[in-house]
Each structure stands twice: as C-alpha cells, then as structure tokens.
C-alpha cells in the first residue's frame, strides 16, 4: 500500500539539522584553545573581590547582536510571532520521515505475478576470436556445445562457427552458392538453468574430408610450422595445394579432426550462487531460513527473462574473461560418441594425464566469455528471429543457443517454438561384405515420397544458407561401423501430415578420384515417419536399412512394420535394426503426453467438423462414445506428467473453462461437462500447489496460477451453434492446435494500482462513470511497453476482449462467473475441501470474470445493484459464509491448519476488497459484518480472533476508495448503506457537523462514528480491543493493530492527492477517535526513560555514572519546576510512578508507532478544533495529554549517528570543566541567582536521590536505538542519510509536541487549574531540553519559554514572584544534572552565556539601562538574568 519508490530521493530535499551532540572537531578545538586567563571584574566595593580563578567572560568574543531581542512587545503579539515562526519551514509529510512499516505485517500487499515469458537460464556470451594452427593449409570449422559430465548429458544445441580467412573460405566457393548473414555469427549466448562445476564448453573442430586416417591428416600439424623456410615451406605449399583439391571435390563432406574442453567452473560458482540467492530471498522476506535452500532450486527452475537485473537472481560475479589455449586434442576415429566424450571429460577433470594419453596438436584458440547483457543488440533467437533491439548496421549477429536443461523446467509456453533434433548415433555395417567404408548419411525432411519433396527446413551450418534441404554427417575414414556425433536441427512445419517423414540415405564416399566414377555410392535407405497415430514420434530408434529403392507409400509405415511387397525389399542383415538414432522435440505445438493429447484431440473434435469414427492412438472413437471418452480424458488430465501439464497449462485451463459454460450437442443430445471440468480444474490446482518444484508467493499462491489469472485468463468465447457431428462433411482439420490463441491478452495488468494507493480524493465529485473506472482498470490489457522483450507478440494482441464479446449474451446462456460460483457452492467431499483450501484462485477467477463480464456487456454505467443477478448474490453470500466457517474450524486445529486458515482469511479479504470495485457496496458491507459476527461467535481465543479480523480489515482498508467509503456516510440511524450508484451523492466534509455535536465526542469511538465510518470504525474497534486485552500472545496482535493504523496514515501522507492542507484536515478528522484510544492506553505505553537507563544509554564505563545518567528527571526537579504549592498528580515523572499505571504491555516499537500516529493527527487536524477540544477537557484529561507528550519527547529523541562508546572522554571532561566554572561564577553572585544555586545544592528531603549532586552527563551522547550490529554493514553515506532523516523526524516531532503545549498553555490561563497545568507543561519542556535537540527546535522552545514567563509576569502579583522563580530554579537544577558538552553559543540564535551575568556588571536587562536607573530592583534584574541564563543553558 505504501509506495516506497516514490520516496527514493526524499532525503535529498531535507535540510540538515544541527545538533549539539554532533559539533565538528574544529569547534571543539577552538573552544579548548580559548583563553583561560581570568581578569578581575570591576564590582561594587561592597562585593568581595573575585578570586584569580574567576571565570572571565569578558575575554570571550561577543556573539552577533540580536536585533529586537529586548524590544517590548505584548504577550499576544509575541505568541503570534512565535506561532508564525513555528509554522514556517515545517515538513508537510511527517510519516515520510518515519521508517517504513515492517513488510511482515503488510498483508495488504498482494504481489503482482511475473509476466508469462520465455524461459531463459543464466546466460553467458561466448565470442570466438581466433582459431588457427601452426600451419594454415585448409579451412577448419568449429562446433561448440555445453556438456554436463555429472548428468552425462548435452545441455545445449550446437553453435557452428567459421573463423577461416577469405582465402581459405574461397576453397569451398563451388559448394556454397549463397551465404546468409545469420551463418556468419562468431558469438553465441548460452543459457544454463542449473549451473554446476561439471559443465564444460566443448569445441569440436572439423575439416574437409580427405584421404587418410585422422592421425595421418593431423601429422603435418604436429611437425610443421608456418614460419620455417626451405623444405618445410615447400611441404606446406604442397599440402595446401592438396587441400584445395580435396575441397573442390569433397567440399560438402567433412571429417572429425580435433577438440578442446573448457571448464566453466569459474563462471558458475555454485556456492556463491546459493549464498546470494539466500540473501536475496531473506531481503524479500520469503519465509524462514530453512526454506531458502529449497527455493534455490525453484528459483532456477522458474528462471525467466527479466527486464532488469534487479528481477533476476545473481548467478555469476565474473567479469569478462579472455582465454587463450594452445593445445588441442586429436580426435580418435573410434571414439566419437557422446559416451566416449563424457569419459574423456571425466578423466580430464580428475587429472592432467589425459594429455599424455591422447595426442595433441599445437595451435591457438582465443575466446572471450562474459555475462550476457539483458538487452543484447543484434541478436537472433534459436529460430533465427531477430530480437529487439536489432540495428541494421551490424555485420555479424549474436546467436542465442537453445538449452536442453538437465531437469524439468516448469514454465508455460508463451512463444511459438517447433523444433526437431535428430541425432544419428551408430551404424553397423560390419557384417556386410561390400566395400562400403567411408560412410555418410544424407538426412532430409520430406513432405512426400518424390525426391522433389525435400523441404528446406534444416538449419544450415556456418558460412552458408540459413536453411537447406539436406545435410551430411561427418565421415570416419575406412570404418564400417562408424559412430556419429552430428546434430540435425529441423524447423517443423506447423501442420504435419502422415506424409511427413525423415529420410536417411546412406552413401560410400570415394576419397580417391577415379575416372568416370561418382563420388557417392548408394548403400541403402531408411526412414522414420514423423507422426504415428497422429502423434509426434520422439525417442530412441533402431531402424533397419533397405538396400533397394523404397516402394510406393513407404512413408505411411514404420520401417519395422512395412507390409510385404512384391518384389520383396532387401534389408541389411535380414531386416534387423542396424541404424541407431535419437529424435527429440522442443515444441509448443506437440504435447508429447498421452493424457493431454487425448484431451486436446477430443476437444478439437467437438469444435470442428470431423468424421467419425476418429482415431486416437490405438483406439477408434465413435460419436456415441465421444461424450464418455471426453469425460474420462477430463478426469485423467491430472494424471499427466507435471512438466507437460505446466507447459500447456494456459491452454488446458482455457479449454476446461470453455467446457464449463458451453453445453455440447453430441449425437443429438446436449452434454454438460461443467461439473467434470470444474473438478478437473480443482485437481490441477491442488497438484500444482502440492508440487515442491513450483514456487509460491508470500500468501501461498502458486505463481503459475497467479500469473495465468492476472495476465492470460479471459472469458470463454461466446457460445455458438455447434455443427452437427458425424455428418458427411470432409475432414477440414484433422488435428488440434495448441498455438491458436495468440490473441490472448494480459487482462488486468493495472489491478495493482488499487492496492498501491489506498485513498482517493474525497473532494472529487465522483460520477457513475468515474466511480467505475475501477472496472476499466481491471480490464486494462497491456502492461508497460517493453520493446526489448520477446513477449511482445504474446501480449500485443487486442486491447480488450474480442469484439464478438461486446454483444450481450442471451439470458438463457451460461455466464462464467455464475457457473463458477454455483460449482463452488454445490461442490462436495474432497473437491469442496480443495476449493476452499485454495480459495484464492477461484476468488480471483470470479473477480476477473465479473470485471470482464461487466465490461463486455457494457454494464459499467449501470447501477451496481443491477449488474449481477440475485441468484449470483446468494451464491456469493453462501461462499463467504462457508469460507468463514472453514476459517473458524481450522483455527481450533493444530498449528499447520491454523496457518492454512490465515491464508484463506487473507484470500477472503482480498475477494471482498475486489468486490468493492464491482458490486453494490452495501451488499459487500453486509458480507463484512456477517464475517465479523460469525467469526466472533465461533472463536474462543481473543488474540486469535482479533488477529484474524485485523488482517482482514487491513486488506479492506487498503482499498483505493477507502476514504470515500468512510468520509461520505451521513446516515447514522441505521446500518451503513451502500454508496451506490456512486459516491457523488455526498461531497461535504466530515468536519461539517462540528456545530451539531459536542467536540469532545469526536474523539470517542462512539456507535454513531462506527455507523458513519464503517471500515475505520471496525479497525478502531479491533485496535481498542487489542490494547485492552490481557491474554497470551496479545503483544503480537497489538503490534499488528498499531501497524495497520500506521500503514493507513503513511499511505495518506505519501499520496500526492492528499497533499493539500484542507485535505489533510479532513482525513485527520476521520482518525480523531484514535486520540481517545491512545490516551486510554497511556498506562500501557513503553517507558523510554526506563529503557534508556537499562540499556546503558550514555554510559562511559563508570558504573556510578551509568546509574546516574539514566536521564529521567528526578522528583525534586519536577517539584522545583512546578513549585511546592503545585499539587502534582505524581511526585516523579517516570511513567512507572504514575498512580493509574498498572503494567507496561506494549513494546517499544509498538509504542513508537502508536505515538507517531498520535503526532500525525495532532499535526494535520484542524488546530481550531484541537484548541476547542483542549479547552473543554477537564484537568485530569489535560494532565494525561501532558503525560503522553512527555513520553513522546523521550520516544522521538534524536539518537545521533555515533555510538556512545565512541564519545571522547575529552569532550566529557570539557563539559564538566565548563559546568564547574559556570557554577563557581554563579555562586559568587547574590540575589535570586545565587539563592537558586544554593537551593539546588541543599538536600530537599529524604526522598532526594543520593546521587543528585554528582556530576551527571548530559543525555546528548546517546546511541541510536538500533543495535550496533545493524550498523556494521552500512556505509558512511547510509549512516549520514539515516542521521539526516532521523534528525528531521526528531525536530518535527518535538515541534508538534511544542504546538500542543502552546494549546494547553492557552487553555490553562483560561482555566482555574492553571498552576497544575503549567507545572506539567514545564515538566515536558524540561524533558525536551534534557534531550538532544536541534537548534531549530531550541530556538522555538526558548521563544515559548520567554512567552510563558512574560505572560506569568503580566498576571502574577509582585508578592507572589516565587511562582515564577521556583519553576526556573527547577530548570537550573535540571541543567546542573545535564550540563552542556558542547559550546552551543557558537550555533544558537539565542543570548550567549554572558547574558546571565549582565546584572552583576551593572546592567539591568528589564529596562536595558544602567543599574542605577532606580526603576528596577536587584531582584528584578537578577530574575531576568536567570531567565536569560535558562534561555542559554538549554
């Protein structure tokens, strides 16, 4: 609810407050270097001569003259000037200075799920810069891929790269008629979802086929060098000429040559990853520490493309690294398989002995590895599609390489991807007597049996066309049973038929040129149909090889089951499987799951014209059995494997919701699948929540389901006439589509706005259409533009639901929201239990469907009461009642069930929260009332009851129109009525009834208030109940209650729509009863003076000083301030000594939050109203307010940014020296000044503390209330910023307290209990002066003191002057206990220390004339000196 981002740079506009505890070292040095010589002061002969140690103030430099300081002004004018000065340069937003609310209590924050987007793991960018050997005689080709040796799996597709020079590339000019730009890439982006130390980047190097074994071909590279002259140079030229001949003749055939592994351990530091992810989750508040390790795997499995680095988990901290390798491993002709490669890599990781067992080739490989940037320009997807930004002025693009994760990745399909990977593995021609030894396989993707039917859908390699019709495997010289390592990547057509198949043609390649002989000699054929029973074939196959030309219609049969032919087909080894192959698909079209396949196929048969019977895998389904089979498939959906179910989750749910509302006509009868579809949805929701591999948010919502509801869901298509099934129409569509809903839009992306801002402008007249802007917000379809995201085609559909939905559906048709509510009501057994266990999903579905329904039939302008049917309202009432009963039942069960009850309670609150934007609000208020009553009747635990209702109400009060819902109720005679049709009927301030009611009643939580301000009244009722309760676990509930109020006030303070003063006054009027609740809880508030003493605030290492520096004003100080004749309600000022205080039940944080709420109300409320309220209060209530202000002073004392342990002893000693010299100078004088000092040193009774006369440290060197270990990880800039904000908070809080004291002072002079109240006021002032205060506050505080004394002088008779002098003596007594530690006269705009001695120098400060004027007595100007001394000293 609080948008912290809007206050990110708030501190930059704050004014630095100057505190005496934070003076600079230069000031201290200049003070210490000041003159210490004492000169004799000229005095009357009747006075004793000063000692040589007298304090010479004349030697000090005078402060600048303060104009008009002694000018006589009336008390009223002086007060007016003080008030104007206090009101200037004040912070309008108090809570902007206050620390943000703990997110642990912020249940009203409903996280916005991540947008559905393409899965991307941890990405690294690999750039190949150089690949060459010591001699350059022929073109070489690199193929790069990632391998995980622990999982023994290849985890990426191949990246082909050509780093040859133009001259060498010219050798192959005859074989490469065209070269596409995409094949010239030399840099690739690899993605790794599960990083580990076992991942290797393997670079395989191939060369053009030539005669000889691999070892023979590699021999020149091992012995010759380019820079050698003589015969060596001639050999190199000869080899180069031979290579050119081979390239011209055999340029399209390649052979393995060398390879090199590169470990990525340093780039994927798993230990660092786990630590960083744990820290990130800890900062985000994702549950206990024990769960953080478990969520590491979830974070990886759900890793998705992020638009900013802040959204993704940190994976690798490495910087760009350039690697250079000078050794290559020679490829072994009989060890080319992946199994052999994994053995090599395992040996390579264990030891370096691999280099001694395998021959190496000298060469140079330079590459650069770096983290892939988020927005990598000029990049191509694995399908060779450009990714924005894609400039046109680049020569070589980057290629994204598709990952093959070692485990499942649970991210739904959001892009179209339809790729097939073919891996020829082994061919066994060992028993064939023919001389076929240099064997290659030509692989083609065919759409028919004619040779011209080869489709150009095979991705080409480097330096060639993007797509080719055929591709050849690498050749192992003279090997009848070769292993293959080729990867053939195919772009599958969107629509496949029975004619599509893979054709494998086997050839023997003649390396030696023979006159009249062809290079290729046909050996045999094999094939693999792409579809089997209308399903994509993937997996491992061992195919037979036919020696003869294939017969007609061979492609519709598998090679193992070809029917008998005439003449018969000749097979290698009698039709045995001799060719091993693996086929894998990465497709968003083909489900590759039996249950999903059956479900989609049967749904397709209902939606399209098909002829029966239809074939589904091994069975035939007739029209008569269609309904039964479809129901079975719906029931069995939950039995699907989790990964394909998640991959096609969006489409599965869409189909089920369509079946739920659209009756189907099958065989002339209407079939209703609503119950089956609903139960299947419930089962899927239950499975997704129970999976440990899927993540959840802070409210227990499955992230995949939350994302579906928020972005993907839309109302099922309008019901249409289903064509009669079983007709003779031709089969128009033989197969379902899983990518047909590309128009799915992200409906509801702005729903968060109704939670970020909790209030709206009460002054705005809200019309019907304006009130229902909420519907438009919910219906908003597109999030912010993210041009670099490949989600653009997914979310950039229509802006609203399709136009066909705009027409109202006939009333006889089902509406989705009504059907969903009905199914929730009538569900039974395990289904019902699961529905309410995961109620959040169905609640959000209801809300989304209701909003789209209102929008689609254009009911947003209708009266809210007529938007939905009465039957639907009854169902909603039943659902709320049942869920409430379920919550109450779970709360009496064990702890695990109680946690589930809390989640359901939050879900119900959000549901009613959303209903306030759509339905009649009076109806929703009745639901809220029934919830509260029902929960009260069924729960016995008071703390549990209050806690549940608090969380419930906190969510409701975070509504955008919270203020409108509370400020504009004017009818109090009955229960709250709905503000429908709009909120525009009332536009008057809640303060408008000031004249009609007693002002004091506005500060009470009355029944009338609860009726007029329904939600706020409920919240205040729970707060009061929590503060009054005294049971186990109530402290946590009290913290929740206070935090809820603080969160609301913070939202108002940070809302720009509520920034006007008039608006703040009206809002503050809504919270006036909170003042009465806080005053009633005064005995329960935390005593900060006691806590400071116990925590050792201001300790310096001396136990006695630690005890004496507790900071509380002693009983004698309070008596001296008030005067002995004042009848104080307590002899001391500690809260623990108050007669009405029983025990402290609130913690310091809870008390601090509660007090800041009180100060916020006092700051923003109508000051005339506050003055009238204070004027009407009895003395006892005013005293309670003064006690509350006293607590506020100690609570918001500035703690500084330095720890007390770091305060120098030198500064402490200097403070004592200054105090001692000032006291000595004062005691040498006579009159009121000297008498006061003497009285301060005389024990006043047995109750006087023994340590009163000891030297006590001033309480300005106090540590911050936070623990020291919290500061160790903060930088100096952060500490300075924190001190800046806390300093402004302390200043503003004390100025608010000062404003309240001014109001009480005015009220006290009009009351008969003036003496009692003034004593309390002075006590608060002294407490504030005893705290570390800013010069801004001290200026206003001294002005208040002067105004108070001036007013006392005008009304006090001369004979009773002690009523002024005694409080001032108390001030001085307190000053003695808390002496200055810094030379404050250099920073204050108040009289300097010399002022209090001016009467002794012969000056009269009462009339500013010489002491011989005769109009002022010595007592008068002595008293005046004390006043100015008090002004300075604090």
TrEMBL record:
GO terms for molecular function: guanyl-nucleotide exchange factor activity. Residues 417-586 form the C2 DOCK-type domain. PROSITE patterns: C2_DOCK. CDD domains: C2_Dock-C. Residues 1-58 are annotated as: Disordered. It holds the Pfam family DOCK-C2. PANTHER family: DEDICATOR OF CYTOKINESIS DOCK (PTHR23317), DEDICATOR OF CYTOKINESIS PROTEIN 8 (PTHR23317:SF74). Belongs to the DOCK family. This is C2 DOCK-type domain-containing protein. It comes from Meleagris gallopavo (Wild turkey).
């Amino acid at each position: 609810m609080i948008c912290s981002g809007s206050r990110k740079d708030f501190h930059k506009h704050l004014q630095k407050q100057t505190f005496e505890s934070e003076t600079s070292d230069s000031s201290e040095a200049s003070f210490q270097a000041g003159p210490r010589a004492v000169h004799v002061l000229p005095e009357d002969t009747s006075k004793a001569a000063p000692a040589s140690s007298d304090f010479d103030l004349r030697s000090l430099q005078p402060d600048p003259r303060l104009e008009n300081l002694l000018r006589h002004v009336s008390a009223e004018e002086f007060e007016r000037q003080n008030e104007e000065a206090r009101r200037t340069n004040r912070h309008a937003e108090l809570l902007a200075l206050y620390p943000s609310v703990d997110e642990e209590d912020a249940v009203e924050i409903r996280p916005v799920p991540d947008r559905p987007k393409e899965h991307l793991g941890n990405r690294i960018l690999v750039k190949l810069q150089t690949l060459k050997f010591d001699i350059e005689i022929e073109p070489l080709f690199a193929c790069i891929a990632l391998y995980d040796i622990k999982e023994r799996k290849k985890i990426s597709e191949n990246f082909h790269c050509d780093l040859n020079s133009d001259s060498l590339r010219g050798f192959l000019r005859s074989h490469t008629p065209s070269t596409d730009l995409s094949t010239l890439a030399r840099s690739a982006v690899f993605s790794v979802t599960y990083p580990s130390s076992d991942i290797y980047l393997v670079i395989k190097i191939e060369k053009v086929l030539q005669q000889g074994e691999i070892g023979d071909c590699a021999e020149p590279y091992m012995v010759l060098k380019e820079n050698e002259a003589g015969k060596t140079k001639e050999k190199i030229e000869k080899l180069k000429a031979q290579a050119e001949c081979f390239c011209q003749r055999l340029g399209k055939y390649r052979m393995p040559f060398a390879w090199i592994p590169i470990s990525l351990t340093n780039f994927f530091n798993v230990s660092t990853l786990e630590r960083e992810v744990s820290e990130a989750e800890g900062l985000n508040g994702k549950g206990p520490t024990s769960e953080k390790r478990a969520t590491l795997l979830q974070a990886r499995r759900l890793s998705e493309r992020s638009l900013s680095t802040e959204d993704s988990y940190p994976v690798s901290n490495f910087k760009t690294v350039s690697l250079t390798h000078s050794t290559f491993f020679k490829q072994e002709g009989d060890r080319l398989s992946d199994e052999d490669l994994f053995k090599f890599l395992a040996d390579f990781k264990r030891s370096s002995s691999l280099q001694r067992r395998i021959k190496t080739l000298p060469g140079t490989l330079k590459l650069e590895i770096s983290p892939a940037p988020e927005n990598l320009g000029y990049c191509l997807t694995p399908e060779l599609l450009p990714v924005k930004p894609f400039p046109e002025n680049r020569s070589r693009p980057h290629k994204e390489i598709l990952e093959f994760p070692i485990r499942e990745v649970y991210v739904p399909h959001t892009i179209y991807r339809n790729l097939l990977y073919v891996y020829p593995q082994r061919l066994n021609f060992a028993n064939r007597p023919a001389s076929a030894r240099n064997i290659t396989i030509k692989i083609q993707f065919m759409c028919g049996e004619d040779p011209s039917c080869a489709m150009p859908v095979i991705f080409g390699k480097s330096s060639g066309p993007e797509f080719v019709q055929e591709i050849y495997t690498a050749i192992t010289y003279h090997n009848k049973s070769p292993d293959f390592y080729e990867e053939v990547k195919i772009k599958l057509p969107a629509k496949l038929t029975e004619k599509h198949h893979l054709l494998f043609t086997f050839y023997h390649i003649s390396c030696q040129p023979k006159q009249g002989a062809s290079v290729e000699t046909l050996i045999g054929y094999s094939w693999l149909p792409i579809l089997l029973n209308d399903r994509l074939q993937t997996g491992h196959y061992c195919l037979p090889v036919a020696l003869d030309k294939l017969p007609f219609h061979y492609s519709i049969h598998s090679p193992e089951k070809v029917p008998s032919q005439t003449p018969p087909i000749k097979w290698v080894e009698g039709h045995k499987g001799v060719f091993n192959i693996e086929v894998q698909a990465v497709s968003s079209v083909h489900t590759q799951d039996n249950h999903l396949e059956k479900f989609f196929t049967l749904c397709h048969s209902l939606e399209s014209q098909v002829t029966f019977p239809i074939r589904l895998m091994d069975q035939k389904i007739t029209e008569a059995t269609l309904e039964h089979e479809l129901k079975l498939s719906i029931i069995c959906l939950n039995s699907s494997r989790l990964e394909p179910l998640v991959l096609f989750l969006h489409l599965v749910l869409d189909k089920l919701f369509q079946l739920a509302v659209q009756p189907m006509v099958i065989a002339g009868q209407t079939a209703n699948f609503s119950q089956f579809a609903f139960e299947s949805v419930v089962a899927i929701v239950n499975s997704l929540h129970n999976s440990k591999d899927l993540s959840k948010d802070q409210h227990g919502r499955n992230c995949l389901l939350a994302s579906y509801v928020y972005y993907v869901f839309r109302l099922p298509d309008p019901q249409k006439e289903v064509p009669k099934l079983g007709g003779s129409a031709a089969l128009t569509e033989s197969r379902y589509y899983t990518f047909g809903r590309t128009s799915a839009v992200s409906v509801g992306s702005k729903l968060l706005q109704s939670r970020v801002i909790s209030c709206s402008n009460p002054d705005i007249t809200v019309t019907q259409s304006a009130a229902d802007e909420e519907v438009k917000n919910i219906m908003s379809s597109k999030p912010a533009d993210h041009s670099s995201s490949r989600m653009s085609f997914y979310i950039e559909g229509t802006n609203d639901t399709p136009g066909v939905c705009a027409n109202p559906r006939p009333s006889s048709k089902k509406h989705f929201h009504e059907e969903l509510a009905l199914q929730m009501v009538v569900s039974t057994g395990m289904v019902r239990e699961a529905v309410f266990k995961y109620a959040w999903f169905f609640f959000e579905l209801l809300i989304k469907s209701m909003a789209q329904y209102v929008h689609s039939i254009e009911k947003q302008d209708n009266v809210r009461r007529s938007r939905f049917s009465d039957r639907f309202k009854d169902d909603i009432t039943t659902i709320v009642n049942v869920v409430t009963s379920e919550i109450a039942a779970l709360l009496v069960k064990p702890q695990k069930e109680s946690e589930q009850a809390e989640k359901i309670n939050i879900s119900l609150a959000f549901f009613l929260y959303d209903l306030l934007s759509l339905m009649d609000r009076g109806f929703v208020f009745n639901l809220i009332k029934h919830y509260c009553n029902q929960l009260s009747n069924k729960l016995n635990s008071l703390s549990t009851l209050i806690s549940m209702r608090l969380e419930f109400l906190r969510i409701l009060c975070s509504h955008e129109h919270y203020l409108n819902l509370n400020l504009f109720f004017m009818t109090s005679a009955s229960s709250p009525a709905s503000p429908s049709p709009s909120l525009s009927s009332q536009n008057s301030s809640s303060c408008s009834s000031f004249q009609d009611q007693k002002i004091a009643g506005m500060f009470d939580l009355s029944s009338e208030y609860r009726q007029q301000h329904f939600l706020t009244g409920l919240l205040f009722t729970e707060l009061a109940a929590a503060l009054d309760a005294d049971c186990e676990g109530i402290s946590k509930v009290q913290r929740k209650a206070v935090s809820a109020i603080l969160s609301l006030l913070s939202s108002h303070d940070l809302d720009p729509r509520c920034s006007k003063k008039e608006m703040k006054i009206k809002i503050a009027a809504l919270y006036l009863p909170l003042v009465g609740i806080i005053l009633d809880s005064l005995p329960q508030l935390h005593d900060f003076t006691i806590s400071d003493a116990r925590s050792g605030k201001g300790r310096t290492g001396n136990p006695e000083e630690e005890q004496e520096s507790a900071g509380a004003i002693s009983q004698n100080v309070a008596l001296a301030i008030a005067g002995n004749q004042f009848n104080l309600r307590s002899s001391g000022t500690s809260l623990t000594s108050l007669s009405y205080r029983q025990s402290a039940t609130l913690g310091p944080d809870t008390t601090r939050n509660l007090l800041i709420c009180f100060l916020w109300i006092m700051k923003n409320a109508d000051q005339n109203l506050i003055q009238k309220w204070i004027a009407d209060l009895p003395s006892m209530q005013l005293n309670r307010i003064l006690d509350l202000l006293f607590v506020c002073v100690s609570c918001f004392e500035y703690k500084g940014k330095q720890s007390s342990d770091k305060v120098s002893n030198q500064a402490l000693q200097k403070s004592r020296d200054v105090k001692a010299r000032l006291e000595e100078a004062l005691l040498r004088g006579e009159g009121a000044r000297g008498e006061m000092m003497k009285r301060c040193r005389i024990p006043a009774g047995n109750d006087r503390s023994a340590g009163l006369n000891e030297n006590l440290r001033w309480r300005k060197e106090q540590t911050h209330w936070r623990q020291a270990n919290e500061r160790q990880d903060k930088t100096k800039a952060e500490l300075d910023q924190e001190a800046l904000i806390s300093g402004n908070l302390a200043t503003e809080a004390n100025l608010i307290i000062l404003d309240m004291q001014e109001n009480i002072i005015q009220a006290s002079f009009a009351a008969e209990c003036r003496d009692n109240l003034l004593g309390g006021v002075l006590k608060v002032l002294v407490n504030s002066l005893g705290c570390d205060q800013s010069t801004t506050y001290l200026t206003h505080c001294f002005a208040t003191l002067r105004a108070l004394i001036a007013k006392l002088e005008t009304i006090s008779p001369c004979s009773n002057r002690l009523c002024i002098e005694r409080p001032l003596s108390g001030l001085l007594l307190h000053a003695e206990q808390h002496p200055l530690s810094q030379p404050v006269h250099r920073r204050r705009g108040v009289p300097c220390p010399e002022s209090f001695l001016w009467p002794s120098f012969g000056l009269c400060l009462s009339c500013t004339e010489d002491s011989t004027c005769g109009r002022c007595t010595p007592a008068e100007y002595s008293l005046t000196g004390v006043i100015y001394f008090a002004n300075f000293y604090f």
